[in-house]
Design a protein that fits this description.
With 135 residues, the chain is mainly beta. Helices cover 0% and strands 48% of the residues. It has no helices and 13 strands.
Length: 135
Amino acid sequence: MFLTREGDDRILTRVTDHVPAGFEFVGATLAIRGGDLSYQLIPVTPEVGAGVVTVVASGAGWSVPSTAGWLEFVVTYRVPQTAPYGAVYDTGTSFDLAGGDDSVNWNPSGLQVRITPDFGSVDFGSSLGGPAQQG
Protein backbone atom coordinates (compact mmCIF):
# COMPACT_ATOMS: atom_id res chain seq x y z
CA MET A 1 0.00 0.00 0.00
CA PHE A 2 1.31 3.44 -0.92
CA LEU A 3 -0.32 6.24 1.12
CA THR A 4 -0.20 10.01 0.68
CA ARG A 5 -1.36 12.46 3.31
CA GLU A 6 -0.24 15.89 2.16
CA GLY A 7 1.58 17.78 -0.57
CA ASP A 8 1.16 17.11 -4.26
CA ASP A 9 -0.61 14.10 -5.72
CA ARG A 10 1.86 11.29 -6.39
CA ILE A 11 2.16 9.57 -9.76
CA LEU A 12 3.29 5.97 -9.49
CA THR A 13 4.59 4.23 -12.59
CA ARG A 14 5.55 0.79 -11.26
CA VAL A 15 4.89 -1.41 -8.24
CA THR A 16 6.98 -4.51 -7.51
CA ASP A 17 6.28 -7.15 -4.90
CA HIS A 18 9.35 -9.11 -3.73
CA VAL A 19 8.08 -12.59 -2.94
CA PRO A 20 9.76 -15.38 -0.97
CA ALA A 21 11.43 -18.02 -3.13
CA GLY A 22 9.17 -20.90 -4.10
CA PHE A 23 5.86 -19.09 -3.58
CA GLU A 24 3.56 -19.55 -6.57
CA PHE A 25 1.86 -16.46 -8.00
CA VAL A 26 -1.94 -16.85 -8.13
CA GLY A 27 -3.29 -13.37 -8.94
CA ALA A 28 -3.15 -9.64 -8.29
CA THR A 29 -5.39 -6.59 -8.06
CA LEU A 30 -4.60 -2.90 -7.97
CA ALA A 31 -6.91 -0.17 -6.73
CA ILE A 32 -6.72 3.54 -5.97
CA ARG A 33 -8.68 4.90 -3.05
CA GLY A 34 -9.30 8.57 -2.47
CA GLY A 35 -9.58 10.44 0.81
CA ASP A 36 -13.30 10.78 0.02
CA LEU A 37 -13.53 6.94 0.14
CA SER A 38 -13.81 6.66 -3.64
CA TYR A 39 -12.50 3.39 -5.05
CA GLN A 40 -11.18 2.65 -8.52
CA LEU A 41 -10.13 -0.86 -9.51
CA ILE A 42 -7.36 -0.69 -12.12
CA PRO A 43 -6.98 -3.58 -14.61
CA VAL A 44 -3.38 -4.85 -14.51
CA THR A 45 -1.35 -7.55 -16.20
CA PRO A 46 1.43 -8.54 -13.78
CA GLU A 47 4.89 -9.42 -15.01
CA VAL A 48 6.06 -12.47 -13.04
CA GLY A 49 9.80 -12.99 -12.68
CA ALA A 50 12.17 -14.81 -10.36
CA GLY A 51 11.16 -13.62 -6.89
CA VAL A 52 9.18 -10.60 -8.12
CA VAL A 53 5.75 -9.67 -9.39
CA THR A 54 5.58 -6.26 -11.09
CA VAL A 55 2.81 -4.11 -12.52
CA VAL A 56 3.62 -1.17 -14.79
CA ALA A 57 1.23 1.72 -15.35
CA SER A 58 0.09 2.47 -18.85
CA GLY A 59 0.48 6.08 -19.92
CA ALA A 60 1.78 8.61 -17.40
CA GLY A 61 1.07 6.49 -14.33
CA TRP A 62 -1.45 6.11 -11.53
CA SER A 63 -2.37 9.31 -9.71
CA VAL A 64 -2.65 8.89 -5.94
CA PRO A 65 -4.54 11.82 -4.36
CA SER A 66 -2.64 13.82 -1.76
CA THR A 67 -5.73 14.07 0.44
CA ALA A 68 -5.26 10.77 2.26
CA GLY A 69 -5.38 8.70 -0.91
CA TRP A 70 -3.65 5.40 -1.41
CA LEU A 71 -2.75 2.79 -3.97
CA GLU A 72 -3.49 -0.78 -2.92
CA PHE A 73 -1.66 -3.65 -4.64
CA VAL A 74 -2.85 -7.06 -3.43
CA VAL A 75 -0.94 -10.11 -4.61
CA THR A 76 -2.01 -13.69 -3.87
CA TYR A 77 0.46 -16.59 -3.68
CA ARG A 78 0.31 -20.28 -2.94
CA VAL A 79 2.78 -21.39 -0.28
CA PRO A 80 4.87 -24.36 -1.46
CA GLN A 81 4.00 -27.76 0.00
CA THR A 82 7.67 -28.15 0.95
CA ALA A 83 7.71 -25.08 3.21
CA PRO A 84 8.64 -26.37 6.67
CA TYR A 85 6.50 -25.50 9.67
CA GLY A 86 8.06 -22.67 11.63
CA ALA A 87 9.78 -21.18 8.59
CA VAL A 88 9.72 -17.38 8.40
CA TYR A 89 9.95 -15.56 5.07
CA ASP A 90 10.43 -11.82 4.65
CA THR A 91 8.73 -9.90 1.86
CA GLY A 92 9.30 -6.56 0.19
CA THR A 93 7.74 -3.89 -1.99
CA SER A 94 9.11 -1.24 -4.33
CA PHE A 95 7.35 1.77 -5.88
CA ASP A 96 8.61 3.94 -8.76
CA LEU A 97 7.39 7.54 -8.90
CA ALA A 98 7.09 9.75 -11.98
CA GLY A 99 9.02 12.99 -12.25
CA GLY A 100 12.55 11.90 -11.65
CA ASP A 101 14.61 9.11 -10.25
CA ASP A 102 12.40 8.78 -7.18
CA SER A 103 11.60 5.33 -5.93
CA VAL A 104 10.66 3.80 -2.62
CA ASN A 105 12.15 0.42 -1.79
CA TRP A 106 11.17 -1.62 1.25
CA ASN A 107 12.96 -4.88 0.57
CA PRO A 108 13.04 -6.54 2.93
CA SER A 109 10.06 -4.83 4.51
CA GLY A 110 9.94 -6.69 7.81
CA LEU A 111 6.45 -7.95 6.92
CA GLN A 112 6.90 -11.66 7.39
CA VAL A 113 5.10 -14.86 6.44
CA ARG A 114 5.34 -17.53 9.14
CA ILE A 115 4.37 -21.12 8.28
CA THR A 116 2.36 -22.83 11.04
CA PRO A 117 0.65 -26.22 11.23
CA ASP A 118 -2.72 -24.66 12.15
CA PHE A 119 -4.64 -23.35 9.15
CA GLY A 120 -5.45 -19.67 9.59
CA SER A 121 -2.98 -19.03 12.41
CA VAL A 122 -0.10 -17.53 10.45
CA ASP A 123 1.18 -14.07 11.15
CA PHE A 124 0.55 -13.03 7.55
CA GLY A 125 -1.26 -14.82 4.72
CA SER A 126 -2.31 -18.38 5.42
CA SER A 127 -0.86 -21.77 6.18
CA LEU A 128 0.91 -24.40 4.15
CA GLY A 129 -0.62 -24.90 0.73
CA GLY A 130 -3.01 -21.96 1.05
CA PRO A 131 -2.83 -18.48 -0.44
CA ALA A 132 -0.70 -15.79 1.17
CA GLN A 133 -1.46 -12.17 0.40
CA GLN A 134 0.67 -9.09 0.40
CA GLY A 135 -0.81 -5.67 0.14
